[in-house]
Amino acid sequence: MKYATQPNPKGRFLKPLVHFLVIVLLLVGWPNPAPGSGNPDQAALGGAPGITDSISVAGLGGEAITLDVRQADLRDVLSALAIKMGVSMVLVDEAAGPVTFEAQGITLAQAFELILQTQGLSYLREGNVIVIADPDTLHNDFFKQMILTRFNLLFVTADKVKPLIEELGIPLSSISVDTNPQVLWAQGTPQALHKLRELLQAVDRAENELSLQYRTLTTTQVSPVRLADLLGQAGLDVSQSVVLGNQLLIFDRTLHNRWGQVEDLARALDTLDARERTVFVYQLKNISAADAASRLAAFGFEDVATQTFNYPEISQEILVICPPHLQNQVRGALAGLDGTRQRIRVPVASTTGAHAHEAANARRHLLSELSGVPIGSFHISRNLSGDADNPHYVLWVEESPEKIKQIEALNKKIE
Questions:
Q1: CATH code assigned to 344-412
Q2: Nearest in space to 31 (alpha carbons), one of 126, 108, 111
């Protein structure tokens, strides 16, 4: 299947051109795909015994990158990624929201998949063309382009694995059992096939040859990945496990034999104190740190704390402490709060006396220099007293409400 470069009837063709003014993309030694290197769409699953002919995005990523995107249009983000991947992308759904995403030390392929996950999107790849849409659209309109993959099993049989896949709700379009009991065929998006691969890695072991029993740990305070890490630190090997939503599915029978102890330990570890924390400083452009802190609190983010620095009514930096999985949401909320508001006109100072006009003009220049608001936004009224010997002038400013509030705070410092 080939795609033309004109707009797709159900979406928009993303040419490798981008407005880099809205995206900060720092790449460390990214190599473009070498010509003649074979089909990058398919690669063996390294480290997954018995599973072959599966699909990875090895052709899309390799070395570590740093990516910082804030309130950028998804189309611009994907265009920037397309340039470095050496591919073309078709975005079927143009209703996706703005992207706020920051990561360090990950591959370009990982960044691509994580960004799509934050938007609830999936993708299919045909050669150097990637089609991006929500999973239902891919299932309904691009079914023929979904990847049909063969999985070779060593110990468990396909007829035992299939009911487990259906029970766990892995979103595959079709699952079929080959005449060979050790072969399973599945069709779906790369993300669904990746989750199936994780499941088969956990269950295709000699001890599961007769049964595929599993036990479930459900978390409420920490992520299942964090719980698995903490259990490992406590000496429990949970490598035979799969993460689905907020559940950790454990297939290791040795742990099943002492499941009461495992559950007790999991409950003790699933606490607020066990959460990891991310600390970052957010640079504001329009509102003060004090306003940002109070307005962010109204979002009701769980376990998110903020700290302001000196002069919070004037400063525009806020320190945020939050769980890692909430960082992008918090950044997105702050970016939304820090938007440009409609300009209004408000008086900020008044002067009287023989040199009132000169005093108002001097204050006008000083407030402009301190606030960064252009001098042209400040205005001096006519003489309001009507008395030339005892004039009265008002200094007023036309700006956003947030900027005016900062100017008023500065004016109080002057007085």
A1: 3.30.70
A2: 108
Model pTM score: 0.36
Contact criterion met (CB below 8 Å) for 16 and 80: no
For the record, the structure tokens of 132 come out as 């991006």
Question: Does domain 278-338 correspond to CATH entry 3.40.50.720?
Answer: no
The first and second tokens of residue 45, run together, are: 């699953």
- The model's pLDDT over 129-159, given as tens digits with 9 standing for 90+, comes to 788 888 777 766 665 556 778 888 887 888 8
Q: What is the CA radius of gyration of the chain?
A: 29
Number of Cβ atoms within 10 Å of the Cβ of 302 = 10
3-class state of residue 318 by DSSP: strand
Question: Domain 146-208's class?
Answer: alpha beta
CA distance 362 to 376: 14
Cα separation of 64 and 104, whole Å?
8
Distance between start and end Cα atoms, the chain: 72
Give me the sheet containing 392-399, strands edge to edge: 344-352, 392-399, 378-380
